[in-house]
Amino acid sequence: MKRIRIKNLLTSPVVGEVVEVKGWVRTKREIKNVAFVSLNDGSTINNIQIVIDLNTISAELLRDITTGASIGVTGKLVESQGQGQSVEIQASEVILYGKCDSETYPLQKKGHSMEFLRDIAHLRFRTNTFGAVFRIRHAMAFAIHKYFNDRGFFYLHTPIITGSDCEGAGEMFHVTTMNLNNIPMGENGGIDYSADFFGKETNLTVSGQLEGELGAMALGEIYTFGPTFRAENSNTPRHLAEFWMIEPEMAFWDLNDNMDLAEDFLKYLISYALENCHDDLEFLNKMIDKELLSRLRFVQENSFVRLPYTEAITILEASEWTWEYPVYWGRDLQAEHERFLVETHFRRPVILTDYPKEIKAFYMKQNDDGKTVRAMDVLFPGIGEIIGGSQREESYDKLAARIDELKLPMKDLWWYLDTRRYGTVPHSGFGLGFERLILFMTGMSNIRDVIPFPRTPGKAEF
Ligand code: 4AD
Ligand code: MG
User: Fold this and answer.
1) Which helix (H) or strand (E) segment is 391 a member of?
2) Is residue 209 lining ligand 1, measured as CB closer than 6 Å?
3) Which of the two residues, 64 and 164, has the higher pLDDT score?
């Protein structure tokens, strides 16, 4: 096939040559004896202009070339006389692949609201905005693998179906093949899971971390990159029920190493996007968020503030701000507090460390003060928490005591505890929410618009 993708055609145009392109019609206008068709094939945000001499095309075919129709065009690439493009194709042959019923096609030239486009998520890829977002999403996924591969980390596939609750928050989707109309009950009134597919209670994973740690205890540095699921009923622009997470886990790394990695990693991803997603970022900067590019550059060029939670509370308590949720030591920070620190007080990304142990997960390394743990949350402008991580508790006794204290099911975690009995080492890791990263990279304001098919409470269409 000699078809050339429009991106390649526009980056290195071979003026004077006959080329073939295929794509979807964005617009068509007719002036005197010519029709100008703007064609997009998804390879780039830019369209190629097709010039059709009306004497060379049947009236029927011309009528069917409407917004949304799919066509193939062969013709000579020439320098363009018109404004807005450097080259165009003088069509010698046009074939129609699929008509597009203009009466019912929901994408019209006028701008549509994000809410409307969410309801037609099967078609929204065809808009400039979503084309840009999903090309950037791809570039980020690729850059993440490249970053870790270049640094000797191994990509570890952790299970989607698990029997444990990593974060201990109990916000899990159950996995079962039991007949929900006839659930087998055990002797003491509870459900008899021994009759279920796995012979035990299982759920969709909320995080690959616990299994990731097992890998790191032999492979050294690993990362996971997969879907995770949370059945939390949070209807916010920052939460999804199904989202993707990147979780590096490193043996012999302490919390400072972990923070260095998080900062370097995020800056690398910004540089990668600036270098490789230029046209899409320019478009989003113009149409979606005028401060996008300057914010990306600012975060890339400035070091992140590193601050213990206790000091952050002092700052928040001293501020004149009126909070919706009051702040005091021991309480988890709300989005308003995180954003105050990042956007108003420090005006740059902040890594908060050493949170009270009560508001963090059981596996975090306990500090000598008996009150705090070696946690770290990376807070970003416009986003709030983008990364959550920690140094892990490597002492068997301390970890077992904490599991006991929290009344977590010790018997389900025997394999996790084994790593602390057989050659335990200090180790650390974190989780980056992929969609929160894409929000930051694109300037989009709702997390439902940076994943192709969002799953949120009450919504699982497509
Ligand atoms: O802070 P979280 O819950 O941390 C963990 O799951 C750890 N096991 C990670 C680790 O140390 N390996 O989640 C990590 C990140 C958050 O900072 C956030 O970016 C994202 O995952 N996240 C969500 N993104 C979208 N929708 C949700 N419901 C999310 N919950 C967490
Ligand atoms: Mg967190």
Assistant:
1) strand 384-391
2) yes
3) 64
- Residue with CA nearest ligand 1 atom 28: 239
Instruction: List, for residues 104-154, the tens digit of each pLDDT value.
Output: 999 987 789 999 999 999 999 999 999 999 999 999 999 999 999 999 999
335, exposed or middle or buried, with CB in 10 Å at 0-12, 13-18, 19+?
middle
Annotate 315-376 with DSSP letters as a single string. HHHHS-PPPSS---TTSPPPHHHHHIIIIIISSS-EEEEEEEGGGS-TTBPBPTTSSEEEEE
Q: What is the pLDDT of residues 53-98, one digit of tens each?
A: 999 999 999 999 999 999 999 999 999 988 878 899 999 999 999 9
Which protein residues have a CB closer than 5 Å to ligand 2 (ion)?
A: 388
Alpha-carbon gap, residue 18 to 89, rounded angstroms? 9
Handedness of CA 290, 293, 296, 299 (dihedral sign): negative
Structure tokens at 193: 């899971």
CA distance 240 to 460: 11
What CA–CA distances, in Å, run from 21 to 11, 16, 131, 251? 14, 15, 18, 50
Residue ranges with strand state E in 67-120 = 70-79, 87-98
Taking only the tens place, the pLDDT of each residue in 418-440 is 999 999 999 999 999 999 999 99
CA atoms within 13 A on the CB side of 152: 6
pLDDT at 13: 87
pLDDT digit string, tens, across residues 301-335: 999 999 999 999 999 999 998 999 999 999 999 99
- Closest of 377, 431, 436, 417 to residue 164, by C-alpha: 417
Tokens found for residue 6: 């429009």
| Ligand at shortest distance from the CA of 239 | 1
Q: Which of 209, 364, 436, 449 to mutate to test the pocket of ligand 1 (most atoms within 8 A of CB)?
A: 436
Residue with the smallest CA separation from ligand 1 atom 24 is 433
| Token pair of 48 as six digits | 């190629």
Residue 432's DSSP bridge partners are 246, 387
Asked if pLDDT for residue 1 goes beyond 70, the answer is no
Q: What CA–CA distances, in Å, run from 102 to 89, 99, 105, 114, 130?
A: 25, 9, 5, 21, 21
Cα(390)–Cα(336) distance, rounded to whole angstroms? 23
Strands 427-433 and 384-391: antiparallel
3-class SS of residue 131:
helix
Assess whether the C-beta atom of 384 lies below 6 angstroms from ligand 1: no
Tell me if 430 CB under 6 Å of ligand 1. yes
pTM above 0.70, yes or no: yes
243 Cβ below 6 A of ligand 1 = yes
C-alpha 441 – ligand 1 centre gap (Å): 18
Q: Is 435 in the pocket of ligand 1 (CB under 6 A)?
A: yes
